[in-house]
Amino acid sequence: MMRAPLPPGRPSMPERTHASDWPVVQPPPGWATQPASLPATHPAALTSTLSAELAALRHAGRCDEALEVLASCLRLQEDARLLLQWHGRMRALSVYPRLGRCLLPRAMPHRRAAAASSVAADLAVIAVEAADPPPRAGLQPLPPMLWRLAWQVPGPRLLAVLRGELAFRLAPGLPDTEWFPHALKAAAQRLQLEAAPLTGLARWPGMDTAQAMRLLNGAYLQGHLMRLQHHPSFWRRLL
Which of 34, 137, 176, 218 is a Cys-bridge partner for 150, taking CB atoms 3.0 to 4.6 Å apart? Predict the structure, then answer.
């Protein structure tokens, strides 16, 4: 994991909120019997399209991964409420992609990448349902939360949609990158100018495979990642 210091003059990242800062919710009857690896859904509220994507994730054994579920909600632009198992308790997270907002009692803080695996070692999606209508107050911007989850989920694992013989570039205007350590910010800026596959990105100065996956996952969730088909032999000549 990366332990690069922040650039000179940049304030330190705020500490993680305690688990009690998230709302504790009680699942509806029947959810307690669902295995943790097979999150329940709310069939009467979710659209058939989102339900189909969640079923596909379940078939692939990735339906408990927060980033995969969020990626489905963002692609379909569907509001959703995720029940998360986090530090042994149920937490609620509502996302409103069309508004670019989410509902959390307090925004999840940034953490250094080196601590990511210990921050949320048991973060998993237990259930998904349609979100309540967005409240008039209390919503937070969605982009910062997506970055923080990309950096805090266990693993990491590359999103399924990013796997395969692909190269990547970042679209200009990637949001909420002020907290990036120097090496990560340099890699993000370089990726706006030139394409690279995952293996190439992981070899850039200050990067490794885990950081490259987190950067690509987060950028995809932000809608700023361009995927390019490539021939492996072409990239091997460049690496």
Answer: 218
The pTM (predicted TM-score) of the whole model is 0.73
Strands, E assignment, 163-229: 166-170, 225-229
Q: Which residue has the tokens 């959810």?
A: 31
Q: DSSP for 199-235? A: HHHHTSTT--HHHHHHHHHHHHHHT-EEEEE--HHHH
Q: Which phi and psi angles does 190 have, rounded to 5°?
A: -65, -35
The answer to whether the CB of 196 falls within 8 A of the CB of 46 is no
Tens-digit pLDDT string for the chain (239 aa)? 344 444 444 333 333 333 333 333 343 443 333 434 445 544 447 889 999 999 999 999 888 899 999 999 999 999 999 988 876 777 789 999 999 999 975 544 444 433 333 344 467 899 999 999 999 889 999 999 899 889 878 778 999 999 988 999 999 888 878 888 899 999 999 999 999 999 999 999 999 999 999 999 999 999 999 998 765 555 555 55
